[in-house]
Amino acid sequence: MEKLDESARRVLAMTSRSDGRPFETGTPQEARIDYDANCPTLQGAREAVTSVDDRRIVGPNGPITLRIYRGIGAPSKDGPGLIYLHGGGWVIGNLESHDEICRWFANTAKCTVICPEYRLAPEHKFPAGLTDCTATLAFVAKSAADLGIDPSRIAVAGDSAGGNLAAVLALMSRAGDAPPLAAQLLIYPNTDAAQTADSYRRYAEGFGLTASTMKWFRDHYVRTIADIADWRVSPLQAETLAGVAPAFVATAGHDILVDEGIAYARRLREERARMVHRHWPGQIHGFVSMGRYVAEARRAVEEAVAAWRSFEGALL
Question: Which residues are responsible for catalysis (predicted)?
Fold first, then answer.
């Protein structure tokens, strides 16, 4: 086992001293309250951006709130656009919990970031949240000129469950079931809901996200056990990844999701997709949301943006 980074060790020590209960011992609503209360203690200061606006659109499931960030230096027209899908096991997380990351992407990439408040489980099980994300991409593509975005420069990004949704959206885009994407930026993505990878054993307890919590998330998200094998829940189970948008994949060494993240990156490489894989061996799940204590958090965003730019450069 790789050595745990001191920053990760410090965060784990802080959280172990807190009075927080494991999410799976309470209700989804209690988990959301606890998560929302703890987020500000780990995130760094929120960077200023040129503008932040909330907007509501209508999707197949009803209204969706979008938060739109315009980064400092972002072009007023024909600029890059990024749809950011927040993590939280499809059960928790919201626009506030990932506000810091969206601001970092907006400024680092000099782009417009659109973050949807997609529907959460168990009130809205699969595929409701995915449908909201697909509707968001459709809106951004259709409204690109009004948003100051070049429709050929739209990327999707997400962390954890958001990384899962981003990977699925990229597969749907390849198939023509969603508008085209220029890149997919996946941060410790969940790619296999079967949860049988060995990292679920190695890091089951003591490294933040536990195996029991991840099972609780998954079981709230799926409708039946049959959904677990559906590639729209488990993109690692897709028949082929060939032809998807170029991908950046970030993995953390001490993470129950690390093996499936590495497996996804390996398949992308083997199936000749353009891909950059960056591995942080000493980090834990969720480290990109721990900017107050983990310097690698901001660097992960910077490397994701650098990969995105390299993909665009190859197409010019």
Answer: 160
Catalytic residues: 160
> Contact at 8 Å (CB) between 228 and 234?
yes
Separation between Cα atoms, residue 102 and residue 66, nearest integer Å: 12
CA gap 137, 130 in Å, rounded: 11
Q: Which residue has the tokens 């309470």?
A: 26
Dihedral over Cα of 314, 301, 155, 89: its sign: positive
pLDDT digits (tens, 9 = 90+) for 36-71: 998 888 988 799 999 999 999 999 999 999 999 999
Per-residue pLDDT band for 124 (boundaries 50, 70, 90) equals very high
All structural domains of the chain, each given as residue ranges with its CATH number in brackets, are 6-315 (3.40.50.1820)
Rounded to an integer, what distance in angstroms lies between the CA atom of residue 289 and that of residue 306?
19
Q: What is the per-residue burial (b if ≥16 Cβ within 10 Å, else e) of 188-223?
A: bbbbbbebebebbebbeeebbbbbebbebbbebbbe
Q: How far is CA 168 from CA 99, 159, 236, in A?
A: 22, 13, 10
